[in-house]
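Please check this today:
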Amino acid sequence: MSIQFKDFAFQAEIQQALDEADYTQPTPIQEKAIPILLGGQDLIGVAETGTGKTLAFLLPIFHGLRPDQHDAQALVICPTRELAIQVAGEAERFGKHLGVRTVLAYGGTSSGDQKRGLAAGVDIVVGTPGRLLDFVNSAWLSLRNIRSLVLDEADRMLDMGFIDDVDAILRRVPMSRQTMLFSATIPEEIRRLSERYMMHPEVVRTHTGTRVTKTVDHAFYPVREQQKEALLVEIMRREKPAKALIFTATREATSEIGLLLRRQRHEVVSLSSLLSQANRERALAAYRRGEFSVLVATDVAARGLDITDIDLVVNFDVPMSPQDYVHRIGRTGRAERIGKAVTLISELDARRTGEIESLLGYAVARVELENFPYQPLGPSRRPSSRTPSRAASARGGRSSSDRPRGRGRRSGSGSGSGKRGGGRRSGG
C-alpha cells in the first residue's frame, strides 16, 4: 500500500493544512526526503521544479520549529525572486495553522517592509542570495538560531553567479544546523560546496531531467532563422492555445516577440529583468488569472513559475543546455493534463539539438506545417548583418493569418502521443 502524508505523523496543524489542500499522497521526492529530514540528517535531493520538493523540505522544517523564538530558525535560499515568492507562499499556506512567521527577502524592491518583518520576529526567512547577504552584513538578519538551511535549485545559483554570496552566507550559519540542498543536477562546484558545508548527507534522486513526461507531446520544427517569427505566428494561429508560454534567449527578444504577437491580436505579457519587480509580480498574477493568454519570458524570468494549465510551450530559441530543454517543456502537461511543446530549430542549432537528443536517448520528432511557405534550409552559418529583422521577416509576403490552415507532417521517434493542432506522425 502506498504511503500517505498522515503516515509521517506530522503535528495536527500541519496535517490540517494538508487536508484542506486535499493532499493525501506524497510525491516521490517527498516520500523519499521527508523521513530522512524528520530524522535530522543532511540531504541532497536531485529533483526538478514541479516535483513537489518545496513541501519536501518545508513540512519537516515546520515539524521541528521551536515555539517562542524571536530570531529565524530556518533559512531558504533561492536563485530568483519568483521562486522565492513561490516558496514563501507555500510556507504561509501550509504553516498558517501553526502560526509560522515567514519573511520574504529579495532585491529590486524597497527593503523597509522586509526589515520590519525581521525586527518583529520571524520563524522562516526565504530569499535571494544578494538581499540575504545584505541583511546579514547589516545585522538585520541574525543567523545565530538557524537550525534548518535550504539551498533550493543550487545549480541555478551557480549558473547565475550567486555561488560566492551563498558561500558567504553559509560560513555564518551555525555548524549544528541541518542542511538541505536541492538541485536538478549536481555539477562539480555544487558537489564541492556540499562537501564543505554538509555532514554525511543522504542523497535521494527522483526525476533527474532526462525524461519527458508522457503527458507532453514535444517536437522540433525546422525552419530558416529568418522565418522563425513567421512560423511562430502560424503555429499560434493553428494551435489557438488557451494559455501559452514562449521562451526566448534574451530579454530584448521577449519585447520583440511580445510586440509581434500583439499585432496578431494575442493578449501577451512579456516578462524579463527589464520590468521592475512589482510589475513582474503583477504580470505573473494577471497571467495566472487568465487575463493574458501568452507569456513571453527568458529562462531566468520564468523560474519559479508554477502554473498547471499551460497547454502550449514554444521554445523560440533552443535552450543553452539540454537539461533546460526538459525543464522548459515540463511547464506543460501538468496535473494530468495533455500538453504540447514546440521548439523552433534553425540551421544554427545542430549542436544543441544533438545534445538534447543525446540526453533524452532518442531522436526528437521533426514536424513541418503543411502549406507553410518554407525556404530551403541552407548550410549552418551565421546570418549576415544584412539579414532582415525578425519582425520584418515575419511581416513579409502574405500575412500568416491569410494562409490556409493545413495539417503538419511529422517524422522521427519523439516522445508523446498528442495530436493537437492537426499534426500527424510518420514512422521513424
The first strand starts at residue 43 and ends at 46. The mean pLDDT is 84.
